[in-house]
Amino acid sequence: MELFNVIKPSGNRVPIVISSPHSGTFFPEDIKRRIKPDLAAKPDDTDWFIDTLYDFAPALGITMITANYSRWVIDLNRDPKQAPLYSDGRVITGLVPTTDFNGLPLYDYGVPDDAEIEERVSRYFVPYHSKIDELLNELHSEFGKVLLWDAHSIRQFVPGIRSEKFPDLILGDNDLNSASSAIIATAFETLNKGGYKLEHNNPFKGGYITRSFGNPGGNFHALQLEMAKINYMDDSETAYNKERADKMRTLLQSTFENLILALT
Predict the structure, then answer these.
(1) What is the per-residue pLDDT across 96-122, written as a single tens digit (0 to 9) for each?
(2) Domains in the chain, start-ordered, CATH in brackets?
(3) DSSP SS3 for 17
(4) pTM score over 0.70
């Protein structure tokens, strides 16, 4: 199993990379046999179908990178030094999670120790981030600027993180620090026309990927979009719903069309 997929543009290339770090579901066998079988069979914290939702992007000239391994193998959007992303008391799953979002233990036995975590960082985390860095630098060299869009989704209600339902869409830019004001405004204003409840940096302001790759002073811009799964999945948030997804895809495509204009 490849660690990730890189989908090259089918249209004229533009300076945008979409990352989907949590859409993978694969477990190496030595890890899978230690995780509770019902959880390994359907890892609920997966960003289900996000890679499908965004599959219009290559025709716009956008490069995509999608992870194949489950975030329960390693979370590609956490600090590899395990510094917490937030300090407001919410549940935050770790770099190598041992529980799901609601605190349910994942492992029947053999919880990873520090040595195994370090090995997983080397085997799974570093290659994904190195590839993003390579893709961004290649586009930056060609265009003089580049945008990384980190694509995520979450159940509408996760009591372990928040006592109320999440907004439909949450645009994160590390409190205005990971992208220029013009890029942020273009994304926010277009998303705000879709008829969805949109929040900005609340309750998510971008994870490690957004924060580490965003350097607007150097024309490296990074945004994260968190999306409630109900907006493209069925009411159980377990199956893809084409009608809902098509509506969301229309808004996302419009957003990227405007971002392309802002960048080129």
Answers:
(1) 999 998 889 999 999 999 999 999 999
(2) 4-263 (3.40.630.40)
(3) strand
(4) yes
